[in-house]
Design goal:
This protein is α/β, with parallel strands linked by helices and 218 residues long. It is built from 8 helices and 8 strands; from the N terminus they run βββαβαααβαβαβαβα. Strands 1-2-4-3-5-6-7-8 form an 8-stranded mixed sheet, sandwiched between helices. The longest helix is centred in the middle third of the chain and has 16 residues.
């Protein structure tokens, strides 16, 4: 396993008026069957312990992972930026472009793992670059926040994972899935709340995600 820190340079100045970069961590098993970019939710970062755990499970399944910050430190102080789905989507597309410029990564099938608001950004990015993205997993996501017409444009097989006690989000996911025209599946994890903090629930999320990506990142 090769794990290296990376930086994705921003092509223009950030909201704070200064140029910046998005730090991240690339973990590359040998051989890798595919690559999954993680898209964290509002108030989180590349250091999210939940995403880090899921990433470790994917790595053991032979899938490379990229965890990176979607916002600069200055931008993250702006609460509005954390919920700016268009901005988060643009950063994910920027990361995808970075991936495609790396010789050892550009041929790998690509997946997105989105959490909370990050799931909406993952779906928007997949709709805008449908030829590149092979699979998507959403954990406790808000796919309903994707822009008009974009859910309908997603072509990548999409797995929506929601906690059994997260009633409002379950309904939002069901309504979003009804609009999607790709292969889509909703998995409800019994006894789990929004953050999957209950014993054994995050492990179920990770296993569902690993199974989905292993089958579809070919």
């Amino acid at each position: 396993m090769k794990t290296v820190p990376i930086e994705i340079e921003l092509p223009q100045q950030g909201r704070g008026g200064r140029p910046g970069a998005l730090p991240g961590t690339l973990s590359l098993p040998e051989p890798a069957r595919g690559l999954v970019a993680f898209v964290h939710g509002s108030g989180s970062s590349r250091l999210s312990p939940r995403n880090a755990y899921v990433a470790e499970v994917l790595q053991r399944a032979g899938i490379a992972t990229l965890l990176f910050d979607l916002l600069t430190a200055d931008e993250d102080r702006d609460r509005a930026a954390r919920f700016d789905i268009a901005l988060l989507t643009s950063r994910l597309l920027l990361a995808t472009d970075w991936i495609d410029r790396q010789a050892e990564l550009q041929s790998l099938p690509l997946g997105y793992f989105g959490a909370s608001t990050g799931a909406a950004a993952a779906l928007e990015a997949a709709a805008r670059d449908d030829a590149r993205v092979a699979a998507i997993v959403s954990r406790g996501g808000r796919p309903d926040l994707a822009g008009p017409g974009l859910l309908e444009a997603v072509r990548a097989p999409t797995l929506l994972i929601v906690g059994g006690h997260d009633d409002v989000v379950i309904e939002l996911n069901r309504k979003a899935m009804a609009r999607m025209r790709c292969e889509a599946k909703l998995v409800v994890v019994p006894g789990a709340t929004h953050l999957f903090e209950e014993p054994g629930t995050l492990e179920q999320v990770a296993q569902h995600a690993a199974d989905w990506f292993v089958e579809r990142l070919r």
